[in-house]
Every structure is written in structure tokens, then in C-alpha cells.
Amino acid sequence: MTHLPFIVSAYALGILVPVAFAVSAMVRFRSARRRLAAIDARPRR
Amino acid sequence: MQTSPVLPARGAPARSLHRFANPGRFLRISGRVLPFLSAAALVLTLAGLGAGLFLAPADWQQGDAVRIMYVHVPSAWLASFGYVALAVCSLLSLVWRHPLADLAAAEISPVGAGFTALCLATGSIWGKPMWGAWWVWDARLTSVLVLFFLYLGHVALVRAFDDPQRGYRAGAILALVGVVNLPIIKFSVDWWNTLHQPASIGLTGSPTMHFDMLWPLAVAALGYTLAFMAIVIARTRAAVLERRIHGLLMARAEAVR
User: Fold this and answer.
1) Quick one: closest CA in A to B75, which residue?
2) What ipTM was reported for this prediction?
3) Chain B partners of A45 at a C-beta cutoff of 8 Å?
4) How far away is chain A from the Cα of B11, in angstroms, using its nearest Cα?
5) pLDDT digits (tens, 9 = 90+) for B14-67
6) Is residue B232 part of a domain?
7) N or C: lower Cβ tally within 10 Å for chain B?
8) Which residue of A has its CA nearest to B223?
């Protein structure tokens, strides 16, 4: 395969960027849910 | 009192839009949709990238470097698509004061900036072996760089005010003004003599690309688009909870005072 380092770099970025966003969104949501459960005294339905 | 028959008709879209502005309803519906959307995004993106890497033929001129297209083109498409979504949310925010549109706009801009940066980076990686340069001040590249700065400007502006509503409003105005850049990006390769190639896929003509190259690109583009949507929905869900936390803490602070 020609230009392999260029192709590998592009694909690595192409996977890394969406995965980083997805993981950060998941961590942010879980953290917010935990904090909300700690301060919100309303009974859960 | 006599009522105008026009008034209910004008209010109707706003009412139906506000049906979906209820954060509880949004959390409930998005919670059901998100797992399927994420799974479809993952499968399609990996299938598209895998097919682009191993099944699609090499280009007769560019060799295997053309495989960078399967990352570059979807990210370029999403850079513009994300900005359209940002502009729509900004319009909903300014005209109908849709509360979820504010949050969605604030969450779209960092993701859009990320995908625009991915487009610029992969374009640069593709440009080096093909053009002999990482960057040229070509009309297409420069207009996409402007788009990247517009996204960054929106990210900064929305977070620049103590009162979030002022930030959302300022960001919405910037986003709507920036829409003028989208046709410039689209037609830059036709209006100016650019190093960047013209579009291979258009709405009016048939694609100037072999089907064996086209289908992995279509699958990758669909996968990335679903991934973009899933990321924005997941971030907006987190933002809804964070706003609820902020509201509760403010109410408690008021009660203590």
C-alpha cells in the first residue's frame, strides 16, 4: 500500500476524534446524573 | 373580542415546537433513541472505513492516498452540516425562544469545531503527498478555516457572559451571520481557480466516481453523520441535567438568603 503513514494517520484521527467526543459526553452525563441524584431530594418515579 | 384567523396558524408551529422543548420529554425520548443511534453509527462508520481501506480500489493517479477520502469527505460534509444545524438551532432560539435549541446550539459548536478540525487535518495529510504541501491558501481550504474560526467564536461567545441567555443570544447572532460562509465553501472550487478538486458528487449530476469507491464513501458518510447526531444528543442530555443542577443550587441559595 502506497502512502501508508499518511493513510494510517488520517484513519487514526478519524476514529480518535468521534471516540473522544463520545467518551467525554458519556462521562459528563454520568457525572451530572450522580450530582443531580445527590442534591435532588425528589422521590424517583 | 374578535380574533384573527391568522393568529392561531402563526402560533401553531411555535406550539408544536415547544412540545419538544420539555427537558423531561427530551431526556425520555433521547434515552430510548440514543443506544440504537450509537450502535448504527458505530457499525456503519467501521464498515465504511473498513471497506474504504480494504475493498475500495486505489486511484490510478493518487494510488492508495485516495483512501484518506473516506475520512476527509465525511468530516468535510459534517463541518457544513453541523453549521446548518447550529444555524437552525440559533433561529429557533432567537425567534421562538426554544429553550432546548439554546442548549443544543451550545453543544453543536464544539462538535462541529472538532469535525472541522478533522477535515482540515485529514485534508492536510492528504495534501502533503499529492500537492507537496501541508497547506495552501486555496479558496476552499481558507473558507473551511474561516468556518473553524466561526465555530470557535461561537464556543467562546456562548460561554463569555455571566447571564447564559445573553451568551446564547450573542452566539445565535454570530451563527446566523456566519451562514454566509457556507455557499462560499460550496462554490469556492467553481468561483476561483483552486488547487482543491471540484465536487465529485452533486445533487444534479451523476457522480464522477466509480461505484466501487462511491458506496464505501456513502456508508462512511452515513455512519459519521449518525455519530455526529448521537454525540450532540448525548452532550445535550448532559447539558439538560447540568442546567437542572444549576437551577436547584440557585434555588437553594435564594432560600438560604
Assistant:
1) A14
2) 0.90
3) none
4) 33
5) 555 566 678 888 899 999 999 999 999 999 999 999 999 999 998 888 889 999
6) yes
7) N
8) A18
